[in-house]
Amino acid sequence: MSLPDLKRKKMLDCLYRRYNRRSYVSPDPLECLYRFEEVKDREVAALIAACLAYGRVAQIVKSVSAVLDIMGPSPHDFIRSGTPARFEKQFAGFRHRFADEVHLAALMGGMRQVLLAYGSLNACFVDSFRKKDPTVIPALSIFTDRLSAAGGTGHLLADPRKGSACKRLHLFLRWMVRKDSVDPGGWTGVPRSRLVVPLDTHMHAIGLALGLTRRQQADYVTAVEMTQGFACFSPRDPVKYDFAMTRFGIRQEMKVNDLIRMAGCA
Q1: CA distance 70 to 148
Q2: Distance in angstroms (rounded) separating the CA atoms of residues 146 and 140
Q3: pTM recorded for the entire structure
Q4: Which burial class, exposed, middle or buried, applies to 23 when counting CB atoms under 10 A from its CB (0-12, 13-18, 19+)?
Q5: Phi, psi (5° rounding) for residue 60?
């Protein structure tokens, strides 16, 4: 590893040690997942939280919390026992930017079909995951097809085959596949090494500043390229740094320029 790479690894490991803590989670929809100890409930809550994770973070947390409050102590049981028509009625008046009760009910209806067919979202995803695939993206494409088979989810579920970075879906996978002080985990059968960085314009700017990519589009190709860059420093867990890095620009007291200046931290 070259000296510049060693310096970057030192910085990334420093960030992880310092900021990968629950005390730095809020504000983040991830905080809504901690209330669910059962994996079957957490995975349902995580998918809903991830699908709604766009816009201002305070509003995201508010919308996700409102949905989960209605679903009660077991989101898994709520989904399995419902119907799309009932979901639409239960969430009448719901609005999160471009999403309304129709989109939300369609997502829940798709989740219900998957749960009835496979028993869990985890089992559904693993069913389409192949060990030879370099990333989770092929399995993610099949997974979203199954969730949206009945249609109507709108923009809540991105299609990996259309070139999108699919930030929200990769965020969902990070939450469920990884387990550490921040990510609650719970899924099995999916290696952390195959995860892809949840890339948005904010994370893209950080990647450009740290020399992890030169591409100007925050798309699928850039997400894979940045993941490969992180894999040079953490091959078994290339997404481990994501949470710590994205605190900069999300939390008011942490600015992206501060992140750049941390290159020499010990």
Answers
A1: 22
A2: 10
A3: 0.93
A4: exposed
A5: -60, -50
Of 97, 24, 16, whose CA–CA distance to 251 is shortest?
24
Distance CA(50)–CA(38), nearest Å, equals: 18
Structure token pair of residue 225: 């390229």
State how far the Cα of 87 lies from the Cα of 47, in Å rounded to an integer. Answer: 16
The residues of the chain scoring below 50 in pLDDT are 3, 263-266
**Domain edges within the chain:** 1-20+197-266, 25-189
Q: What is the pLDDT of residue 10?
A: 85
CA dist 94 and 107 (Å) reads 14
* Number of residues written out for the chain: 266
Q: Are 39 and 187 in contact (CB under 8 A)?
A: yes
Write out pLDDT tens, residues 17-65: 999 999 999 989 999 999 999 999 999 999 999 999 999 999 999 999 9
Q: What's the confidence (pLDDT) of residue 9?
A: 87
Q: What pLDDT sits at residue 257?
A: 65
Amino acid symbol at 223: A
Beta strands in 75-130 (DSSP E): 95-96, 99-100
Question: Looking at residue 7, what is its pLDDT?
Answer: 79
